[in-house]
Amino acid sequence: MAVIELKNINKTFGEGIGRVQVLDNVNFSADRGQLSLILGPSGSGKSTFLTIAGGLQTPSSGSVTVEGKRLGKLTSKDRDQLRLNKIGFVLQSYNLLPYLSVADQFVLVRKVKKTGNLPDAEFQRLLTELGIADLTKHFPDELSGGQNQRVAIARALYPNPEIVLADEPTAALDSDRVKVVGALLKQMAQNHHKAIVVVTHDLRLREFADHVYQLMDGKMIQEK
Amino acid sequence: MFLALREIKHEKVRYGLIIAMIVMISYLMFVLMGMMIGLANENKAAITTWQTQTVYLNKNANDNLSQSLITSDQLAGHRLNRHESLVGQAPVVLTKANGKADKQSAQFIGLDPKQAIAKENIPLASGRHAHHADELVVDQSLRAKGYRLSDRVRLNSTADDYRIVGFAKGAQLNVAPVVYGRLATWKTLRGVNQQVVASGIISNQLEGGHRFDKLARYTSQEFIQKLPGYAAQNNTFAFMIGFLMVISLIIIAVFLYILTMQKMPNYAVLRAQGIPARYLIATTIHQAVILMAAGICGGLLLTLLTTWLMPMTVALVLDWPLIALMVVVLIILGVLGAFLPVRMILKIDPVRALNG
């Protein structure tokens, strides 16, 4: 069974002549251990797709199911819990708090989610895999863009979510870094059995994806 | 608490400035309160040491002991009981007979040595009680002005010399040191005829019935409130302290509002990650409490330093139970100030996290 499934998703903004259909009957599903790539130019509805998949906003019609639970039937508090426990976000802006050291970014997760996080040994292995084990005392503004992105990936994986949703994770990275991050995401999907969904306009990530979708004018087409 | 402390630790200058602001406000409040209590004490200390419960004055005295004159006719048919004392009050200028000290304005209190106040209610800091008509007991603050035991002094421009035989504790009235002497001396100072017996009657018992029907009767609180300038002075200080409290509330609310606005993108990311709004609200409230507590501690330290450095003549009294109450009120105000940004946190749209 797919860990996340979006069925017949429509999303419109505005009314009357100003009405814009951002997503048009979108269907999508992802399984554990797979990296799905959703490509599309700016304004194609990628971010809207990601916010609906992550339960941050509701679709105009259609359903989103995460591990068999329909998000539309959950309360706002339950959706918070679901995001905390089942979904990890990797954002373009790295999702790191500027006033917390790398180590404290994970302490914050432990403060809020007291159980079910990666065990210490596995967490240390993850930091080593990502090449950030020596950076735990540093603050985000002391790290390069690539280092921040790797910390953000670790931060997303630390609560041990089933799904990782990544929004333009390679924006502002050079080609070498794109390859590193792409390989890492692929490795996370395979080694940690996560369903990783990446929305991007960066074609350089295609080679790492198990499934590739094109999102154009609100319509989604699977191409791989 | 974790996020609140980490952020304050990381943004030392920003939060340091806010704390400095609260230090100054709380310092000002504590000093004003200390002065309010100090001045109030200097107005009424003697009345308190007399253990005053009931006061009788002339009905036409406009509630003022120094303007009141009680005649023997008004007391006809009454005997004073063991709780009651005749008191004569007159403002005087005290000078050393040899002229070797500055003139001091004081309040002369004439007493009958056989009555309650003279016998029981003048606590001494040094020396002894007066046994003769030419002996005086004066407020101990006069020591700082150069007056010593056995000094010969004069009152106003009378030719008689008096000798200081004791220094009294808490002998202040109308923000002036008290000079205790005999009722006969008071009559001389006031230049009143033999029919006048005193300015008023002080009883250290709460007298329910109206014992002296030709006199006006006051409870201790009523009498103190009517001391010249006492209520106006206290109200002025109370208003200043109240305004400072409101200002501190506004400052903490505005600063936390601005800081929260700056952190909205971070909070949106945390909300997107499923961090509950209540955690972020608790962080904001903890931050308000930490800022207020740190600022108040700084204010208290400065206040203690001020009382230590301040000359004895400045009326500054720290009333710790009242300060503790004020600390609690200030922290509550800080928490109230945090409610403005709390509304913003509740309205955070986590979608903003993806829209940058």
Q: In CATH, what is the class of chain A? A: Alpha Beta
How are helices and strands ordered from N to C of chain A? EEEHEEHEHHHEHEEE
| Main sheet makeup of chain A | 6 strands, mixed
Radius of gyration of chain A: 17 Å
- Measured distance between first and last alpha carbons of chain A: 20 Å
Number of individual domains of chain A: 1
What's the arrangement of strands in the largest beta sheet of chain A? 6-7-8-3-9-10
Number of H- or I-type helical stretches of chain A = 6
Q: What topology, given as strand order, has the largest sheet of chain B?
A: 3-4-10-6-8-7
Kindly, what is the distance between the CA atoms of the first and last residues of chain B, rounded to a whole number of angstroms?
Answer: 27 Å
**Share of helix of chain B, binned:** 40-55%
Poorly predicted ranges of chain A (pLDDT <50, ≥5 residues)?
none
Give the count of helical stretches of chain B: 9
Task: Give the overall form of chain B.
Answer: elongated
Mean pLDDT of chain A: 87
What Rg of chain B do the Cα atoms give? 29 Å
Family (chain B): Belongs to the ABC-4 integral membrane protein family. HrtB subfamily.
Protein name (chain B): Putative hemin transport system permease protein HrtB
Subunit structure (chain B): The complex is composed of two ATP-binding proteins (HrtA), two transmembrane proteins (HrtB) and a solute-binding protein.
Function (chain B): Part of the ABC transporter complex hrt involved in hemin import. Responsible for the translocation of the substrate across the membrane.
